[in-house]
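Here we describe the complex-level prediction in full. Unlike the single-chain runs in Section 2.1, the two entities below were treated as one system.
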Amino acid sequence: GAGVSQSPRYKVAKRGQDVALRCDPISGHVSLFWYQQALGQGPEFLTYFQNEAQLDKSGLPSDRFFAERPEGSVSTLKIQRTQQEDSAVYLCASSLRAENIQYFGAGTRLSVL
Amino acid sequence: GNSVTQMEGPVTLSEEAFLTINCTYTATGYPSLFWYVQYPGEGLQLLLKATKADDKGSNKGFEATYRKETTSFHLEKGSVQVSDSAVYFCASSYTGANSKLTFGKGITLSVRP
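The structure predicted for the assembly as a whole is:
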């Protein structure tokens, strides 16, 4: 079936704008992860869902970052009042269960001007 | 905390050359270890993994052995191809309710014909 789908692929925002990034995981995958990848760096963990429950949000860098997965499938990462330091690629990954292999989407590249 | 350290890049090799990319980890206990690859314009893909000491992961001619005594998981390939040109990430995680990945910075490999 289809892999993990993320939209939009590219997003340009003016500083102070709110943005919403969408992730469609592989159908039936219980676990969903968000990562942030700054230029020239490896991905860094942001938050983790098991079905609709957000079990770990320890990686969210500030209270401007908010994620949800209300029906246990599609997830949205929202960033309020974007800052230049938020510019990065945001990656979503899903897995059948928490201990299984994570499958990654192609990411959303966010540029804050 | 847990961390993964990769050798500095980029690496440029001629086709059919031998490849070694170093990776070491620090962790409490015994994490699972992974190599992910990112081809140009694509998302992260799992290349290989090992879940316990002395395990050898292998795929597409690449190999890596989980060395507990040296806390290492070096990636090797006997004869690289132009199509192996990509960014390679070493990562670790714990099996459990939240198996979030901790990544190294990544290294860019370019293979010349």
